[in-house]
Amino acid sequence: MTSIRARLLAKALPLTGLKAIFSDEAKLKASIPKARAKKVAAPGKALHRKFKVTETTKDGYPIFTLAPKSGSHRRILYIHGGAYVLDIQPGYWTLLAEMVHRTDATVVAPCYPLTPEHDWKESYDWMMPVYDALVEEVGADNITIMGDSAGAGFALGLTQMLRDQGKAMPHKMILLSPWLDVSMTDPMQPALSKKDRILGIGGLRAAGEWWAGENGAVDIPPVSPLFGALEGLPPIAVFTGTFDLLWPDARKLKEKADAVDMPLDYFEFPAMQHVWMLFPIPEGKKARKQIADFINADLKADAG
After folding, report:
1. What is the pLDDT of residue 298?
2. Half-sphere exposure of residue 111: CA atoms within 13 angstroms, side-chain side
3. Smaller CB count within 10 Å for the chain: N or C?
4. What pLDDT, on a 0 to 100 scale, did the predictor assign at position 201?
């Protein structure tokens, strides 16, 4: 049964204004200058007291790191969501701090180039050296790639590119409410749009077209990694909710994985909203423990 806190939160979510912004292309595009005018949400003072927090930049884009004060040889490369148009938001730091605490891993959270100014190719080209540097630092076997929403699509697409380029693969991958098909054409989505209190089809479809770039196709990998092959990828964990507009993407990924005997741990929570695993609700708490358990299972001893 859905918790009372989850039901109350779902009723309050429209107050964030995100549903209205994502309702159509014009509203989404109009919201971008205001969103970009805000300073990127950096880790707060409380996290500086608990962890070793650093901020570097790559081509003007910040990369934040949360590390245990004792050090760690493990890395979580976290790629944030936001429909490829929004920067990292304050709410992510609670999740990422909990991952550091539960896994004793260092979280690396890059703020990558966003659309409509940049397309998928420019953003992937920017991110690839970030991953390469982590491999050089700790080895691919000590890296988990994790992302939510658009960031989960980015994580899957990046890993598919790593495989296709013959590069070292991360140890595991975790996809939270993944956006894997930016075309937004699944027949389930019109009905789901009435249940999802955060996302809208029109805005996401526009963002997907911007992400694809000028004259780009939206139904090819890595723009929409759902259409890419899964063979040769590391074990994947997927977390999704049945009131999420992107729930069909997660289900299709599971079906594809089952068809090729691909290891995939699938966590589907009834009546949960988009990115519910970030929220302060019992279901979110349960999911965060499951995420950490997936990361910790069969990890090599820390050499840090």
Report:
1. 79
2. 22
3. N
4. 98
Q: How many CA atoms lie within 13 A of 185 on its CB side?
A: 8
What is the rounded CA–CA span in Å between residue 20 and residue 136?
43
Q: Which residue has the tokens 């699938």?
A: 266
Give the C-alpha separation, 170 to 145, whole Å: 7
φ, ψ of residue 143 in degrees (nearest 5): -115, 130
- Find where tokens 């992107």 sit: 246
How far is residue 126's CA from residue 55's CA, in Å, rounded to a whole number? 17
- 8 Å CB contact between 13 and 200: no
Q: Which amino acid is at 179?
A: W
Residue 70 CA: distances (Å) to CA of 67, 100, 105, 301, 304: 8, 12, 10, 15, 9
The pLDDT value given to residue 299: 58
121 near 213, Cβ under 8 Å? yes
For the chain, the residue count is 304
C-alpha pair distances (Å), 169 with each of 22, 79, 180: 34, 16, 20
- How far apart (Å, rounded) are the C-alpha atoms in residues 304 and 92? 25
Q: Which 3-state string (H, E, C) describes 114-154?
A: CCCCCCHHHHHHHHHHHHHHHHHHHCHHHEEEEEECHHHHH
Could you tell me if 233 and 164 are in contact, meaning their C-beta atoms sit under 8 angstroms apart?
no
Instruction: Return the SS3 of 76.
Output: strand
The DSSP symbol for 298 reads T
Give the pairing type, strands 52-58 and 264-269: unpaired
Q: What single DSSP character describes residue 226?
A: G
Taking 50 as the pLDDT cut, the residues of the chain under it are 300-304
| pTM assigned to the model | 0.96
- Taking the C-alpha atoms of residue 90 and residue 103, their distance in angstroms, rounded to an integer, is 21
Q: Which of 30, 283, 73, 100 is nearest to 177 (CA)?
A: 283
Pairwise CA distance, residues 115 & 207, whole Å: 7
